[in-house]
Amino acid sequence: MTPSRPVVKPVWQRAVLTASACVTAAILIAAVHWMRALVIPIAMAVFFTYVLSPLVAFLRKRGLPRVPAVVLVVGLAVLTFLGTSLILARQVSDLSETLAQNKDRIVSKLTAARVAVVGEGESRWAKMAAEFEHSLAPPPDPNTPQEVVVRPAGTPWFSRLEVVVGPATEAFAQAGFAFVLVVFMLLAKADLQDRLLRLFGDTGLTTATRATGEVSRRISRYLFSQLVLNVSFGLLCAVVLFLLGVQYALLWGFIITLMRYVPYIGTPAGVLPPTLFAFAVSDGWWQPVTVLVVIMGLELVCNNLVEPKVYGASLGVSEVALLVSAAFWAFLWGPIGLILSGPITTCLLALGKYLPPLRFLYVLLGTDPPLTAPLALYQRLMARNQDEAVRVVTEAIPEDTPEKVFDDAVLPALSMLVQAKRDGEFEGDEEKQVLGIAEEVIDELVLEVRSRTDKTAIPANERLRLLACPAADDAERLALEAFTAVLTEQQWEVKVSPAGTLASELLDTVGQFDPDVVVVSSLPPHSLAHVRYLCKRLRTRLPNAYILVGRWGTTTAEVAEADAASLSAAGASAVTNTLLDARAKLSGYRPVLADRASESVIPGTTVNGEAAFGMAPA
User: Fold this and answer.
1) Residues near 520 by Cβ (< 8 Å), separated by ≥ 6?
2) Model's pTM, two decimal places?
3) How far is residue 303's CA from residue 310's CA, in Å, rounded to a whole number?
4) How far, rounded to the nearest angstrom, does the alpha carbon of residue 492 sit from its chain's CA centroid?
5) How does pLDDT run across 185-225, given as a tens digit for each residue?
6) Domains (ranges, CATH) in the chain?
């Protein structure tokens, strides 16, 4: 039974779908940017809903109804926000006064820093800096007429009020809208989840339930843990800054807390304001240097020791994806987008994991290998990148044995090369070059296999003769090289016939070598017709030999069963699809093969659970 091939859409249809997806994505991105005044509050509300959900769930487990639990959690959050805002506003006001009072000290520090960098007097660096300063901000020419702008008399205070009140009103409106959404989302969380599941219909209910469960539990727990960790880290930094004598420690701790939401570069950017402030107002260098070293040391400890224990299993978001996401959302939404980029990315990753239309998000954002080992090896071979091809197989050895790497990566990659040749994808001598690189990769694994093989010698008269022949081309010859590597060299006298050997030439080799075992190598999608023909000719010439057919890489049970039945009817003793199974079969039959001169095995009996076809003595 041949497995059904996947339906391949025509080229024009795939092009239309790709163009439609690109246009749809462009429209969505433009809409998210243009409607940011509406979308940002919704995103903030979803974020805080996930953050506060564990607290609501905790209170509900203690017997408190949902409405009082939501009111209590939201009330505590609002009080915390208002108290923090009042403290920060007071510290920002005091900071502006402090900077104004220390203006002379700041200027002297900047001058000293400039002299330390570019020198003073007539040095070349000083002249170059003066020229750059003159070119960027040339002094005004006294002969140039000055432009005079006449404005109508008005109320300056009203103009200044309008500049301040406009953005403040918009920010408060967005904050109020987000607050209302958070309350209603927490109250109607189950109802919203059921309505979302209803959109997927009955057929997609299982997948949708898994996706929403992933987002509701894992993402919520992750974001809550992230909030607690960031706030704790900010408070710890504030305490350290206070002990070091740095003013406005709470303000700097709040900035560090916010910046920790920016992946990888957040803490270095957040530590700059307190460091620069300490440099500007302190008398020496010890305070700013101590601030920088202590906070970055705390960050290293937090990243390597605390975060793995708090977060548990990683969400699987790649580093590059987090950085690109931070830049993308900062471009769309500004600072709010920069802070929300991490949570948004994790939510998109969870959705892409379970929703097939969004699967590309899981591939682009996740840390799972984008290509399986066979595909990765095949791609490196087609790119003729030998070093990377060797790296693919050597990196798989610590997890699996070299023999299993042959079965799981090398043989499927060789089958893909056979398929590429069948489809006419090779040009010129490209096939020869690719197979040459594949041979080098296989040699690397062969050396690893033989380095781990038992070297115990056995008498030469106990070695059995094994003839290995490829059914068609060099790819199957390479598969035989892998096969002979997994055999115990001291137990088998192996002879490999060249690729493309005619059946008559193979029979002549059989007459000269007189093998006990013949192994025929075949890689799908090569046809079985020639393999069946070889089996019939070999069985006629060697009625007592053990003929093993390696149909390497066949993974479908139905196909393997059909191939085995067809080849057994043609004279094959056994059919296998992996090197490890082939070695096991030969190991099981080896005692019978070694004793066939003294013991008779009647056709139709079984050895180790398999039919002993052709095992009777001559």
Assistant:
1) 469, 470, 471, 531, 534, 535, 538, 547, 548, 549, 550, 572
2) 0.62
3) 10
4) 44
5) 888 877 777 777 777 666 567 766 766 766 677 677 777 88
6) 33-111+168-187 (no CATH), 224-365 (no CATH), 373-446 (1.10.1240.10), 460-611 (3.40.50.280)
